[in-house]
Amino acid sequence: MCALRRDSVRYTMGFAAAVCLVCAVPIATAAVLLRPTQQENQRVDRLSKVLAVAELVGPDETLSRQQVLDRVAANIRPRVIDLRSGADVDSIDANSYDQRVAARDPSRSRPAPDNAAKVLRLPNLAVVYELRDGDSVKALILPIHGYGLWSTMYGYLALAPDARTIAGITFYEHGETPGLGGEIENPRWQARWKGREAIDARGQLRVTVVKGAVGPAAQDPHRIEGLSGATITSRGVSNTVLFWLGPDGFGPFLERYRRTNPEGTS
Description:
Strand order of the largest sheet: 1-4-5-6-7
Oligomer: single chain
């Protein structure tokens, strides 16, 4: 068999395929080997946001991985709950359970009913984080997600011990427009949520994001001023919060919690 000429199409294509194969093997191997580390880094980053919304880390404070884990272990108790009933599920390790992964698994999730937040699937089980001081619950921290203008926004909503009043909100992943919808990450906008009454004494969802200025929480407890120039993103955040506080989200858990923990104690 004669050798291929180096200027032939077959030689060029064969050489390119060989280079691709040689490069692809180490890249694929590295991706597989590094995946557990990447997943752990993502978990720790989410936990750092739990600390942030619980006000256990300052806005300018940077924590190492171990500091995040230590501070979470000292102050935060994760609980796995059945999303439909709100009851605790003690057979699942709350520290290793990944709610986002479960939501993509048909055997561990279900289609969500039609909703304004555009949540497509609901995990059967979810994680609730408790900020604790001894036997007292100082805040309930709920993972939330919903669609904004361009992307699904992932974050955490903190409720005061009464399970009605908002204690904080934060987002850790989204693809909204920088300087506009991306301002959902701005601490000044997030501070507008603190002290607002999400659920009234009758158990009705009341919180909403609106255009224009609103009063302080004491005089205007149910409304949050939206982001300037980002009406759709603001509406998406509002829809997201309402969905996850409602009957298809953490509503059953919150109702059960208020019945059994009226003072926020275990």
